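Structure in, sequence out. Go:
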């Protein structure tokens, strides 16, 4: 897997293909656990009932806000486990309520949304659909523990399963805010 894009290479690739008004960026997140250093610190704060590092998080929110102001369209589907783990719950408290201001975040939950069974791929990916340009698909690679290993560009001839699954997922996924409001049993009181 030496030809994988690292984190910087992935960001550069997305920036090169997702930059003009009307360009679409779609993210499929299906791992139950992401081992990301900055998120690990947030998870510890979450488990202790404390707030995350809002200064660090605000930097990313500013990027998303700029993209939205410039007419770029960001969409995300998160596939949740039937019983949400701490990483998934942290995303519900510290992530999607804030990123959802600038990107359309939707949820498919095992045991709640039967369409989860229609999803055939077993990994995360990005789909970039620029206005007036070819579609790009990036397959994400993670360790068994959820640590990012890299991303690979999917050749045009192998994109169909991704584009088909994206269409199904987007059609049936429930908007995060609506889903979250229906599940007060998952809400935790957190320090400001």
């Amino acid at each position: 897997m030496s030809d994988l894009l690292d984190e910087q290479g992935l960001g550069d690739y997305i920036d090169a293909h997702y930059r003009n008004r009307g360009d679409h960026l779609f993210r499929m997140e299906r791992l139950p656990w992401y081992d990301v250093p900055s998120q690990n610190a947030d998870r510890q704060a979450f488990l202790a009932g404390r707030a995350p590092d809002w200064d660090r998080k605000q930097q990313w929110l500013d990027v998303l806000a700029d993209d939205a102001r410039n007419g770029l369209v960001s969409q995300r589907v998160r596939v949740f486990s039937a019983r949400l783990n701490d990483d998934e719950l942290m995303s519900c408290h510290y992530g999607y309520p804030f990123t959802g201001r600038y990107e359309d975040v939707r949820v498919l939950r095992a045991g709640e949304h039967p369409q989860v069974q229609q999803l055939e791929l077993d990994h995360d990916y990005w789909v970039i659909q620029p206005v007036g340009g070819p579609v790009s698909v990036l397959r994400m690679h993670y360790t068994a523990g959820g640590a990012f290993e890299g991303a690979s560009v999917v050749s045009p001839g192998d994109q169909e399963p991704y584009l088909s699954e994206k269409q199904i997922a987007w059609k049936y996924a429930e908007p995060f805010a609506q889903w979250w409001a229906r599940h007060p049993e998952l809400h935790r009181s957190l320090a400001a």
